[in-house]
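Readers of this paper often ask what the protein records in our data store actually look like. Nothing more is needed to write down the fold, since each code stands for a local backbone conformation. Below, we set out a record of this kind in full and without editing:
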Amino acid sequence: MNTKNLTLMALLVAVGAALYLVIPGYGEGMKPDFMLTMMFIGIFLFPDVRSVFLLGATTGVLSGIFTSLPGGFIPNVIDKFITAFVVFAVIALLRKAANNLIVSIIITCCGTLLSGTIFLSVAIFIMGINIPFGLLFITVVLPAIAMNGVAFFIISPIIKSLLKRTSFKTALSN
């Protein structure tokens, strides 16, 4: 893992954190998690175990720090870590197809669905937070799926075109 790749991953996570902070909350202060979008872009660019570990851990910790749900730190860390490795496995299985924008958007939407489900499940069943799963799933997770899909559709091609002009070693340059 070289310094350039680490720097790019850090920039992706920083952009995700900035988006997370500036997007207004809705439904009792809940927010869609754009950290996921940037984590998924990072996994598509650097599909190796160490990079996925770093992306999952950093996005989980930062999302946990910025969460608006009391007691939401641990659910954020768990959900980002699990989601990162599941998305990594899907990308590894689909290799060539995952480079297609439509397929990568579908993977992003499915990853957001998984992340939201894990987050709410951990918050309710492990942390004992008294929140209605169905209501939050409909009002927060489903809109987050749509917003992350649209954000990925806009951001991913821009990042990919910028990276083609640089000396970064990503999955795209192989």
